[in-house]
């Protein structure tokens, strides 16, 4: 780890340890607010919302490796604020070379003033990029777009949606403000304590809201997806590591049949298996981030592999964490079940395990 | 020989006529072993009027006198018709236990009120710090004339907030081996000194409670079985709990649900997820496990019917049934994908009539997935079941 | 179990216990003989080779339930003689209603005088019934058939092969003597201590060697396959039960780190898992046999389910048996590895797990 | 900075020129960690002439002075070119151990003969009845002047039948804690009192032996390390054994093999098995595990290179590498189906030129599957690796 990375990690660990204890987080998740503006402002001030942007955008020019470092800490603390959604995912699209967007948007994103999120998933489908129902067509003064989007992570606090739709048979990306005429936003909470929204729209937009189309849109989307996958994988890695650590602590303290649970060999082997699987994930996520930052040829394949491996492992590890705890882990007031809920929500965010696996096979067989 | 087809038809016609749309909705919206409380009780009263509230009970106590196959058919039809579940603590647990260990007074006073639903019972077994090691329980009942004075706390007491009665395991003798000093005690839940703290579960709902006892006075006539003999009473109850359930019925229901979900979700290429060969294969493998479980349950039923005792095989069925049921939860999660995420508890209320952000077929998926993680914890953890198999069958 | 079944089981257990100890079996497997004619004759005398045949064939009229009882015992003792191949599989075809075969063949089979075996599998393929390369055509005085068959279980001791081939686009079944002109039989041993053969043929056969074709051939084949699956599943059940029993005994006796291995909880749980899986298999195999004997509608679906479940379980259980033993189990002189080798050979005999699963899905979706 | 691409090319050209068809066949026909013995030794002599027989050794002992990446490249290229394996007991195990613990005399006399292949060493660690519990070994060496008198037996001694030397763990003090009384001793294998019993493995071949010692006299100068300090010597060897292996190289080879097999076998509908989406998915999932393992090995290599000690991570890699390798064996078995059944040991001899009943692509499949079951048993069982992880990393 280089010095800059160490500084980032230290400051994240310090801030989260001091301000983001589980009970405050739980109160926030149970409140009518979706996120803490205090935290969000602090994130902006610490430069976390500017991390991956180039200096021309006031950013720090960090790569996925640094995003992953921070995401992993967010995973450990179950951070509710949408850094991944806005900074990493939306930010990746807004700053993709060739994508048409006013620089004021990037300023608003980097400063934390506005929140941006991807609106791609449609109801009753998996996230397949090639089968969108939402569609756009040219009209007199711009474009008319019609369709539905669902389960948009951070959707309840989003100011601008990056909406995918078909335009003349091609993928197109639109930037749509939450208060656009013809747009209905249904906001709600999610099981992992965050917010989301569904969109229904039949709206006319100015031509300037079309950010990209065709090959450009597609490659911006795919680059965004890689980053979303790795950000989510790193967050899941943090969550599962924390779930294991909590389990190890708990079994050391908990006495049953006259001995600490941790002394039962069957449980020791299960915790050893959890550790083994987590370490394998850590290796893949790290390698994929470095490959992405270096622009390596195998970056996407490593990214997809990380998605597949992390998704299964996070599911299994957090399930095991609950099982090894017993009843306590099934309550809202104990942390470990929240890791389970969070990694479950991450499973299908932007890209499902199944989609990743199919694309992995496609890339492998094409090589 | 009983005409089972005719019986099934009779049950089906009764359910058709008796299950209101609200009751069916309550059944459909069930996300754990318990349905909406009021709906469950309403359904129990309807069944009671028909004489079917306690399918497993002998006729002398108001059971319908069905054989093992009829009971299975009844359960299966109820499940298929989306009837709400009947709360188990009274009818499945305490009732049979009183028939075996209760005094005449207990039998005549308590059993009919269980059947009618006039009393709602909850179970006080586990304690914080005890878990699978039930024998280490610490709640004490000290004899004081014709009363016990009870102090301590019980946890994971399901539906205590809706119950007027509680049965508990309490320690009546500290000077003997842990298992030897335990007694089985019945209490009114509104006795002075009892307080109830609801526990919010991981799905955001309250189903379980912690119950505190502070100098609670309980008449000694409320003892079931002999003083200090509560362990054998309790063990028989654990066996009811473990063996009394037909996992196959629930799992077949889950299978149907996953198929339906996978038909409704469009996967890659816009085709139904069910047509994805990898998903279809996983589902088939799970279905084959369900068939193996079903045939094992039938073997056990056959052994019961022949007067045998399946013994530790019920541990096997508990272990397999709960884990397979969890596997179906995962297949559901895989099938519906992102539609699991909305947390919209209003939508789980059978009386709610508004719009929800989540489609019908996925309303309960996440809550079921979350809640069913407990299935391998309560009633003897998955690990305890394996200990039992290792000890009792393999003699390790 | 009824009285007849109990008698059958008792006699099998007695005979195998008294004459079929592991060391004699091992000597036979390592000898240049493939099977013991003494055992084979004894099997015939005890009626085992006549079991499933009707009284008109001098048989006992037993069903799959009884075949499974015996097969399970064969599995426990790793019996080398081809009762399943000749009596159950070939016998099922020869006695299938409508199949054209001289009754002298059935007499020869029932008496043990001749051995019959299915020659269906082709090189470089799985056992898919619809993709045969072997083909037959009408010639002047009969039929000419050309092709290759491979890995025919019991092939080195087989007197008559039941050969599958395409005739005018349809499945056809031929009865071919081992010394037919134009037939080359390559005989060899197999890893499970038995024999097999490959066939290469380009031969002219009399018209009488065509036993069935078209729908009749197909339904005779499928009925045979059901019986092969269940016989093999029962044998695998016996082998894995014996592997578990051996493991339990061994871990009770073996001391490591000052305690019997059987007292380590991690190992106890693994043996409990073995038992659980074996019992699930037992339930399915029993149900499938009863359904087949009763002619139930769900017989084939249960049979395919049994194949899928037993194949995975037998693999896993015998692997675990080796692992829990340690080094000793990797030697030829210790029994437990032979169970592993036997169930591995059974995995693909007549029907693979994959084929069974695909057919299971087809039947399920058609219902 | 080293030009690794140029280095890879150099290695590749050397292999191209030096590996005879017979040697390549021996490599291809390898069914365990050992290739055909004569072929291995012939290949070692060729490598020795080039100075490449011991890639991991420092230059002062005749190693090529490669860094960790070069060694990896060399191993990988050897594997891809189907070179026979080099026997590990001398070069991988005893050599580095003598460099660390040997006397000057041992270093100068023994090490060069390991490198040249003039001596063939085997390992006497395990005993019947000891297994994973190495500290309980019973073979004794009693001091008698300037000799030890050795009595006992060793088992699972690979290639003893081909070796002229053996290194053993022996008990030199019975009156202390089991681990404290062990010494590390070198012997000529033709000493009076040593007899060798070959053990037939499950695949029908002989690779391992049991070695018996009856009043064998061994000079005390043959001790490595201090008397009674054999445990620390042995432990360092176990670490060489565990950490020295690059599982990824073998597993990538397996992956390529399975792909090839699945292309050659026609599955349902006559299409290559590789196009079956279920099989293809299983293979992809295994490939992803292999990538995770590879990246973990690279992490460890990086930590080594940075002077760190990967410690129990090598247990992790051993556990994952062996189990994943077994998973690839199973995929091979699934891919080739019935072609695994023929037992035709002649076909495994690199000099055999006749017809075989089994196709090329499946010749070794069953033997590999069988033999590789040992991978999770020797060098510390899968269970021992998990014990180490639980103790050393999780501190349980």
Automatic annotation (TrEMBL), chains A, C:
The keyword Nucleus does not apply. Residues 231-347 form the Acyl-CoA dehydrogenase/oxidase C-terminal domain. Residues 2-96 form the Acyl-CoA dehydrogenase/oxidase N-terminal domain. Its cofactor is FAD. Keywords: FAD, Flavoprotein, Oxidoreductase. The keyword Flavoprotein applies. Residues 118-201 form the Acyl-CoA oxidase/dehydrogenase middle domain. InterPro entries: Acyl-CoA_Oxase/DH_mid-dom, Acyl-CoA_Oxase/DH_mid-dom_sf, AcylCo_DH-like_C, AcylCo_DH/oxidase_C, AcylCoA_DH/ox_N, AcylCoA_DH/ox_N_sf, AcylCoA_DH/oxidase_NM_dom_sf. It comes from the Bacteria. One of its GO terms (molecular function) is flavin adenine dinucleotide binding. Gene3D superfamilies: Acyl-CoA dehydrogenase/oxidase, N-terminal domain, Butyryl-CoA Dehydrogenase, subunit A, domain 2, Butyryl-CoA Dehydrogenase, subunit A, domain 3. Belongs to the acyl-CoA dehydrogenase family. This is Acyl-CoA dehydrogenase. It comes from Luminiphilus syltensis NOR5-1B.
From TrEMBL, chains B, D:
Belongs to the acyl-CoA dehydrogenase family. Keywords: FAD, Flavoprotein, Oxidoreductase. Its cofactor is FAD. One of its GO terms (cellular component) is plasma membrane. This is Acyl-CoA dehydrogenase domain protein. Pfam families: Acyl-CoA_dh_1, Acyl-CoA_dh_M, Acyl-CoA_dh_N. It comes from Luminiphilus syltensis NOR5-1B. Residues 122-216 form the Acyl-CoA oxidase/dehydrogenase middle domain. The keyword Flavoprotein applies.
């Amino acid at each position: 780890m280089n010095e800059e990375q160490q500084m980032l990690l230290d400051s994240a660990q310090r801030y989260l340890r001091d301000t983001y204890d589980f009970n405050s987080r739980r109160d926030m998740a149970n409140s009518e607010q979706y996120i803490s503006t205090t935290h969000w402002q602090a994130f902006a001030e610490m430069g976390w919302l500017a991390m991956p942007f180039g200096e021309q955008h006031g950013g720090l020019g960090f790569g996925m490796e640094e995003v992953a470092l921070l995401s992993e800490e967010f995973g450990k603390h179950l951070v509710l604020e949408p850094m991944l959604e806005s900074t990493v995912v939306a930010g990746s699209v807004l700053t993709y070379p060739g994508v048409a967007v006013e620089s004021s948007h990037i300023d608003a994103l980097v400063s934390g003033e506005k929140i941006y999120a991807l609106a791609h998933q449609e109801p009753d489908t998996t996230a397949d990029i090639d089968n969108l129902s939402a569609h756009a067509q040219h009209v007199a003064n711009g474009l008319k777009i019609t369709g539905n989007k669902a389960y948009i992570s951070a959707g309840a606090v989003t100011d601008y949606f990056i909406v995918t739709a078909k335009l003349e048979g091609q993928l197109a990306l639109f930037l749509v403000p939450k208060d656009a005429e013809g747009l209905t936003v249904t906001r709600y909470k999610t099981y992992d304590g965050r917010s989301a929204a569904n969109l229904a729209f039949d709206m006319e937009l100015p031509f300037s809201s079309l950010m990209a189309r065709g090959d450009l849109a597609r490659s911006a989307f795919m680059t965004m997806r890689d980053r979303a996958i790795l950000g989510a994988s790193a967050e899941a890695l943090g969550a599962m590591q924390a779930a294991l650590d909590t389990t190890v602590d708990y079994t050391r303290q908990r006495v049953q049949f006259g001995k600490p649970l941790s002394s039962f060999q069957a449980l020791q082997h299960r915790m050893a298996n959890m550790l083994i699987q987590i370490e394998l994930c850590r290796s893949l996520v790290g390698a994929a981030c470095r490959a992405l930052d270096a622009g390596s040829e195998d970056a996407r394949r490593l990214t997809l592999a990380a998605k597949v491996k992390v998704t299964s492992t996070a599911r299994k590890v957090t399930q095991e964490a609950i099982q090894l705890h017993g009843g306590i882990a099934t309550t809202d007031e104990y942390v470990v079940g929240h890791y389970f809920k969070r990694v479950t929500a991450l499973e299908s965010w932007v890209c499902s395990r199944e989609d990743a696996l199919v694309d992995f096979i496609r890339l492998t067989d094409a090589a | 020989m009983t005409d089972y087809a005719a019986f099934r038809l009779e049950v089906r016609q009764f359910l058709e006529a008796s299950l209101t749309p609200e009751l069916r909705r309550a059944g459909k919206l069930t996300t754990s072993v318990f349905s909406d409380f009021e709906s469950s009780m309403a359904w129990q009263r309807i069944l009671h009027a028909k004489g079917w509230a306690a399918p497993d009970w002998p006729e002398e106590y108001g059971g319908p006198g069905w054989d093992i196959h009829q009971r299975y058919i009844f359960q299966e039809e109820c499940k298929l018709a989306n009837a709400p579940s009947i709360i188990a603590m009274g009818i499945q647990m305490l009732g049979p236990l009183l028939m075996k260990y209760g005094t005449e007074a207990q039998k005549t006073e308590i059993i009919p009120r269980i059947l009618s639903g006039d009393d709602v019972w909850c179970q006080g077994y586990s304690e914080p710090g005890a878990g699978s090691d039930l024998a280490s329980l610490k709640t004490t009942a000290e004899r004081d004339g014709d009363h016990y004075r009870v102090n301590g706390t019980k946890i994971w007491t399901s539906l205590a907030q809706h119950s007027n009665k509680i049965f508990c395991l309490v320690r009546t003798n500290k000077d003997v081996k842990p298992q030897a000093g335990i007694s089985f005690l019945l209490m009114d839940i509104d006795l002075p000194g009892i307080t109830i703290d609801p526990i919010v579960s991981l799905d955001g709902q309250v189903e379980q409670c912690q119950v505190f006892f502070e100098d609670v006075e309980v008449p000694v006539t409320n003892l079931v079985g002999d003083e200090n003999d509560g362990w054998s009473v309790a063990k028989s109850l654990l066996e009811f709990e473990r063996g009394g359930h037909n996992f196959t019925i629930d799992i077949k229901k889950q299978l149907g649900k996953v198929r339906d979900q996978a038909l409704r979700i469009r996967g890659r290429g816009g085709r139904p997820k069910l047509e994805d060969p990898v998903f279809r294969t996983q589902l088939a493998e799970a279905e084959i496990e369900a068939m193996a479980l079903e045939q094992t349950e039938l073997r056990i039923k056959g052994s019961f019917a022949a007067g045998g005792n399946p013994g530790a095989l019920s541990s096997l069925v508990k272990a397999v049934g709960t884990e397979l049921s969890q596997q179906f939860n995962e297949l559901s999660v895989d099938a519906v994908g992102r539609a699991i995420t909305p947390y919209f508890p209003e939508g789980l209320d059978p009386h709610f009539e508004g719009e929800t952000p989540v489609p019908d077929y996925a309303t309960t998926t996440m809550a079921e997935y979350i809640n069913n993680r407990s299935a391998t914890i309560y009633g003897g953890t998955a690990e305890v079941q394996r200990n039992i198999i290792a000890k009792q069958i393999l003699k390790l």
